[in-house]
Amino acid sequence: MDVTAALIMTAALAAGAVVKGATGMGLPLIALPVLTSAFGLQHAVGLMTIPLIVTNVWQVWRFRGQSRSDRLAFMPVFLIAGAVGIGIGTWALTTLPERVLVLVLGLLLLAYIGLRLVTPHWSLGAVLAGRLAPLTGVGAGILQGATGISSPIGVTFIHAMNLARDAHVFAVSAMFLLFSLVQVPALWAAGVMRPEWILQGLLALIPIVVFMPVGQWISGKLSRKAFDRMILIFLAVIGLTMVLGL
Q: What span, in angstroms and rounded, lies between the C-alpha atoms of 174 and 166?
């Protein structure tokens, strides 16, 4: 990896770490599109697995008390369905043209932004969430396996339940953690993962550890509404760039 590539990787991971530090999520949503533009989708997905595992192990442990919440009863079915979806998504990653997957990822980012803007206060009830858990779990897993980002389905589904902050962070972190743990052997089995990407993933922890506290500090200075708008603008630029192939 040359100096320019290393700087791009560091900047993308730093930006994602700031968002994760401020909101408890967003590392892959911010970093992966930039890494995909610089290195290609397979490389970016492989590189991100180690940072996702490490950061979400910490968050699941920190908010582990939320696992007993009645409102998270949908999680086991959701996560199992997601693991199945990752197998399907990994097949798509190794089979479909990369331009198609990048285009899909860009469109999903724009769709996610549109959903956030159009229905900011819609809430999903616990009963309906339980019924939708298998379908949304599979969909989120397919996205994770094919593009490295499950947020447009997974986070949107969890966010729609209007959970308390700690329960929300636990649910999202548990999803990212299990998906990443399943994705690593899936990538190896598909012949996609390379040893150097594992090493790069370990090195990627350095900017993440440095910049996550920055996000925690920023979150105390800006309103959540202002910070969300800043994130959505950034994601819109990335999504348009991926869709237009710039």
A: 12
Tell me how far apart the alpha carbons of residues 75 and 137 are, in angstroms, rounded to a whole number: 9
In the predicted model, is pLDDT for residue 246 greater than 60? no
Mean pLDDT throughout 186-195? 84
Residue 189: its H or E element: helix 165-189
Name the percent of the chain lying above pLDDT 70.
Answer: 91
- Which of the given ranges, 133-142, 152-161, 209-218, 222-231, has the highest pLDDT on average? 133-142
Give the separation between CA 19 and CA 234, rounded to whole angstroms.
11
Distances (CA, A) of 234 to 35, 101, 102, 153, 239: 15, 20, 17, 19, 9
CA–CA dist 192, 189 (Å, integer): 8
What would the two tokens of residue 144 be? 């994770």
Which of 49, 60, 5 minimizes the C-alpha distance to 205? 49
